[in-house]
């Protein structure tokens, strides 16, 4: 992840230009002068004025005007930029770039929520949550580097050729990974009536 921001609005509408600006600023601070070539986002980020502002910077924007669940176009969203974006996404090049979005972006949230078990903020207040989110994303980047199998070639000590660290728990014979917050669950879960789920 290059940039991470927290907002108190539930929709992504209006968040495109601020996050592109933040990502560009982070790249400049890192000494990278090249700007991104393409910005890919889901339909919730559609904000025509912000999209035009990003395009004016020389960055191509690929955002479908329709959500994937919708059959057909949104009412009133025909012609102009909507039709143009649908045509671009129907091309092999545009569609190929957009299809990469799900494989690049969604795994970050899956890893954070399910593997790392971070599904809510521990601190309160927007600035505290922003700091916590930036720490979470920074550690995501570090873990990504650490887990790379070719890390040894880049001078990084990764998990290549090593077994995961294990700790003994209170119960003899049961082992859990050191990075788990809770002990592993037994085979099947039971609901409040005792029935197996």
Helix-strand layout with pairing:
Elements: H1 16-29, E1 38-40, H2 48-56, E2 60-62, H3 80-90, H4 92-115, H5 126-147, E3 166-168, E4 175-177
Parallel strand pairs: 1-2
Antiparallel strand pairs: 3-4
**pLDDT under 50 segments (min length 5)?**
162-193
* SSE series: HEHEHHHEE
Beta-strand segment tally: 4
**Percent of residues in helices:** 40-55%
Question: Mean of residue pLDDT?
Answer: 76
Shape: globular
What's the helix count? 5
**Rg on CA atoms, Å:** 22 Å
Oligomerization: single chain
* Main sheet overview: 2 strands, parallel
Order of neighbouring strands in the sheet with most strands: 1-2
The amount of beta strand, in percent, is: 5-15%
Distance N terminus to C terminus? 37 Å
Structural class: mainly alpha
Question: Can you describe this structure in just a few lines?
Answer:
By secondary structure, the protein is mostly helical.
Model description:
- The longest helix has 24 residues, at about 90-115.
- The strands form 2 sheets. A two-stranded parallel ribbon has the order 1-2. A two-stranded antiparallel sheet has the order 3-4.
- The protein has a domain at about 15-120.
- It is mainly alpha-helical.
- About 40% of the residues lie in helices and about 5% in strands.
């Amino acid at each position: 992840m290059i940039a991470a921001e927290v907002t108190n609005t539930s929709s992504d509408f209006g968040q495109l230009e601020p996050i592109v600006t933040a990502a560009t600023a982070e790249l400049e601070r890192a000494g990278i002068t090249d700007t991104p070539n393409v910005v890919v986002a889901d339909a919730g980020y559609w904000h025509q004025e912000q999209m035009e502002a990003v395009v004016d910077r020389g960055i191509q924007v690929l955002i479908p005007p329709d959500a994937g669940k919708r059959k057909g176009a949104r009412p009133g969203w025909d012609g102009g930029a909507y039709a143009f974006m649908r045509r671009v996404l129907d091309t092999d090049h545009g569609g190929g770039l957009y299809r990469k979005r799900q494989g690049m972006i969604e795994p970050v949230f899956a890893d954070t929520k399910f593997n790392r078990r971070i599904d809510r903020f521990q601190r309160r207040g927007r600035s505290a949550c922003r700091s916590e989110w930036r720490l979470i994303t920074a550690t995501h980047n570090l873990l990504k580097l650490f887990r790379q199998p070719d890390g040894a070639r880049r001078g990084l000590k990764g998990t290549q050729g090593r077994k995961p660290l294990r700790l003994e728990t209170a119960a003899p014979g049961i082992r859990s990974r050191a990075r788990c917050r809770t002990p592993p669950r037994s085979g099947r879960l039971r609901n409040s009536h005792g029935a197996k789920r």
